[in-house]
User: Which sequence fits this backbone?
């Protein structure tokens, strides 16, 4: 499922829930940044302000013999939101994840290649998220995923829960409980694999 999304836009409209200071902070992110698991990124809180959190909930891996092992869970499936891992956050700690685009991978002639999904007209994507406090990492968020719409179905069996404008208020208020395939229009194109290091260069991230 989605393990990378993009920040950095020069325009786009904002829902009514976004306060002026948050708009200013988002519009200041003009340089393109690829957000990957565990990296910090801004999320929009129900009060209309931004907070910076790390992407992914940390959970213990069973069976560690000498020390506790951990895994990072970046996506929260809609059909499992009532389970132990997600239910409290979904009921009490909701947020929105602003994004310029998100990425999914497909098979190419020489391996996996990323597809970049965005809204037409340079509009922002507003993705349903939940968050929690981690004792060691601080505040962390996870991206809600749902069934794919017709644009995503040929690529993956899940997609980020991209919210339509009329869904944003009910979601942040805790009233929206189900998502289904996103009604937000999306378009995509193949792009260069940003996970590969160019020759004779260091790490990308």
Assistant:
């Amino acid at each position: 499922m989605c393990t990378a999304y993009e920040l950095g836009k020069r325009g786009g409209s904002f829902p009514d829930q976004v306060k002026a200071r948050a708009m200013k902070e988002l519009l200041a992110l003009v340089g393109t940044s690829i957000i990957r698991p565990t990296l910090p990124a801004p999320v929009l809180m129900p009060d209309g302000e931004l907070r910076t959190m790390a992407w992914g909930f940390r959970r213990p891996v069973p069976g560690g013999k000498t020390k506790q092992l951990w895994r990072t869970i970046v996506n929260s499936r809609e059909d499992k939101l009532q389970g132990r891992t997600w239910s409290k956050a979904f009921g009490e700690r909701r947020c929105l994840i602003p994004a310029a685009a998100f990425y999914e991978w497909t098979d190419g002639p020489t391996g996996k290649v990323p597809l970049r999904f965005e809204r037409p007209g340079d509009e922002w994507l507003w993705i349903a998220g939940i968050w929690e406090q981690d004792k060691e990492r601080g505040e962390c968020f996870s991206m809600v995923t749902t069934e794919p719409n017709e644009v995503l179905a040929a690529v993956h069996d899940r997609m980020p829960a991209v919210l339509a404008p009329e869904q944003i208020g009910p979601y942040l208020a805790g009233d929206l409980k189900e998502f289904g395939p996103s009604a937000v229009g999306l378009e995509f194109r193949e792009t260069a694999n940003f996970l590969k290091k160019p020759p004779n260069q260091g790490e990308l991230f």
Notes: Residues 61 and 67 are 10 Å apart (CA to CA). The radius of gyration is 17 Å. Helices lie at 20-27, 87-92, 165-173.
